[in-house]
Amino acid sequence: MAPRRSRTKKTLSLSRTRPPIFRAKHTALSSKATRNLIRRHHRLLKKRAQALKSRDEVLAEKIEVQIQQNGGLESYQLASKLGQSLERGGDSSKFLIDWISPHLSRLEGTKSKLRVLEVGALSTKNACSMNPYLDVTRIDLNSQEPGILKQDFMEMSLPCDAADQFHIISLSLVLNYVPDAIGRGEMLKRCVAFLGKSPLSESSLQITPRLFLVLPVACVTNSRYLTERRLQEIMSSMGFVLEKSKETSKLIFQLWKHSQGLQPKRFKKEILRSGKTKNNFAIIVK
User: What residues bind S-adenosyl-L-methionine, as annotated (predicted)?
Assistant: First the structure.
């Protein structure tokens, strides 16, 4: 048998990586292969963040090359999009629509819509986007299609007035993408600034703002540094109240109502449960 030829991989920036195998054949990926790609991507991002924190630019560059060889951001997005396809369990925003349906029914016969910010949007045709009572702003680091703005949520200008705020923010498998624990805490704090109670247009109806949060269930149930109780404490310190929650074998879906403005408490990284099989997912609030 002739020896296999090694393929030379060209290193490109995250936003420009276009792996042909994912463009043409991503539908053939098994669910196991999809999960493995996503896990490798998260693991490499974490290693790169640690290298940058220690100012080891040489190591950070080597890890960046590994990220590109793993397919880069676009491959991660395509794997995530495939994971949310109907044959893999469907669209997570269907839970959001189901949970807020009582509020949407109050908009019948009006021209009012709830303003939604979907962070890390992968599609313009999910349940959230197709609902006639929602005005959805979709953003992502690497836009996959027209209708999704290329925007880093952490670099968005803070709202100047109520018109720039949103009634609902969706963080579906976004918080776990942030490579460091401090960044996750900052993202949650930033969500508070973008949520507002402004009245709907042509209506005196006010909607209490909400945050739709989706995480891999292992981030909450199998972490050394984060438990359901600690997540509750972090969110409560920011003025959130848990309204709805659903857990599957792979994901946890939560709808948090933002009831009041509070000064967030500090939460450090500390061991809450021990065990060799536990992961290191954490949220630090400074």
Answer: 120, 140
